[in-house]
Write a structure and sequence with these properties.
Length: 346
């Protein structure tokens, strides 16, 4: 394994397997970063716009002036920027959520403020990882702009600045995600028996292989042409920039970069009835070979359709569209929602 160093980071491996920070931020560093004149441009880069940007600026200034909050933000930021790569463990911010949310109450009600501010000042390591694996600067910032998207999802459900998808975002900061067009993708090892036969785990040493996970951000219609372009871009990117993950792959296995998985509330047969078989949602669901499902997936549908988290009385949910009406009715009458796991070979 070879190491390549820059002033702030070292790249481990050739091809790279990780990027590590070579120094830590001090509270003074973080104060300067949080209050810098360039902050509006940074917020825009991270997808934080509109009401969220307007609310966050004054809170960043206030947090930078509070020694205890600044110290906690610095601790979070250094943990987020410590490393990114194939095998890096994402920071578990949900384990610290109660304490962080209690601290933020001195500035504002809600949740997730301290992690949001830590995300602002901790992008350098994951951007170095993206560069090491051939993702250009604009696409790197597109990945990180999912922070702002998750904040908008939060506001839609609460009418407040905040973030509750903490560990989804920390996964992005650990280098998990690539955003290519309409879809997002990540790399993970999946059990071969699950992929090929849909079977549950039978032992601790089952064979695994690298696959490309697929995620669907809530940013608009799932136009079939845009979906196709995203899959094509993903195959091109991963086969070129992660060709090493296809080495030593069994001859009878699908070629690396051509095997996709998806675990989502969108992989449901209900869409044919609710929105029609030719709808974008039904056509997306039909792409996938089902390898599993969860009939207790109502919470996922509740969150992604309405932006709500339990407990919610389904009778109070809006029914402005066919999708909202169909999901609300199923949650109200006890049919619930079955999420799916699927595989797609291309």
């Amino acid at each position: 394994m070879t190491d390549r160093r820059s002033p702030q980071h070292e790249v481990l491996g050739d091809p790279p397997v990780a990027v590590r920070a070579t120094s830590s931020l001090s509270p003074a560093d973080v104060r300067v970063m949080l209050t810098a004149p360039s902050r509006p441009a940074l917020l825009e880069r991270l997808g934080i716009i509109g009401e969220d940007a307007a609310d966050l600026g004054p809170l960043a200034d206030a947090a930078a002036a509070d020694e205890e909050l600044l110290a906690e933000i610095t601790t979070i930021a250094n943990a987020l920027r410590s490393g990114a790569g194939l095998e890096e463990t994402a920071l578990d911010l949900s384990a610290q959520k109660e304490r962080h949310d209690a601290l933020q109450q001195r500035l504002a009600p809600g949740e997730g403020l301290l992690p949001i501010l830590a995300f602002l000042v901790s992008t350098s390591t994951v951007r170095a990882w993206h560069a090491a694996r051939g993702l250009d600067e604009e696409l790197s910032w597109t990945v990180l702009a999912d922070l702002g998207q998750q904040m908008r999802v939060h506001r839609r459900g609460t009418d407040l600045l905040g973030l509750h998808q903490l560990n989804w975002v920390t996964g992005n900061w650990a280098g998990r995600l690539v955003h290519l067009g309409r879809l997002q993708f990540d790399l993970s090892r999946r059990r071969v028996a699950r992929l090929e036969h849909g079977t549950e785990r039978t032992g601790p040493d089952e064979p695994v292989r690298w696959v490309i996970g697929t995620h669907i951000p809530a940013i608009g219609p799932l136009d079939p042409e845009a979906v196709e372009e995203s899959f094509t871009a993903a195959t091109a990117y991963f086969t070129e920039q992660y060709a090493d993950l296809g080495q030593d792959r069994p001859a009878d296995a699908p070629a690396f970069g051509h095997e996709f998985t998806c675990d989502s509330w969108l992989l449901s047969g209900e869409f044919e009835e609710i929105t029609g078989p030719e709808s974008n949602l039904a056509r997306f669901a039909a792409l996938w070979e089902r390898i599993g499902g969860d009939p207790q997936g109502g919470d996922g549908a509740l969150f992604f359709v309405f932006g709500k988290r339990p407990p919610v009385d389904p009778a109070t949910l809006p029914r402005r569209t066919r999708l909202e009406a169909g999901v609300a009715e199923r949650l109200a009458d006890g049919r619930g929602w079955t999420t799916g796991s699927g595989r797609l070979l291309r």
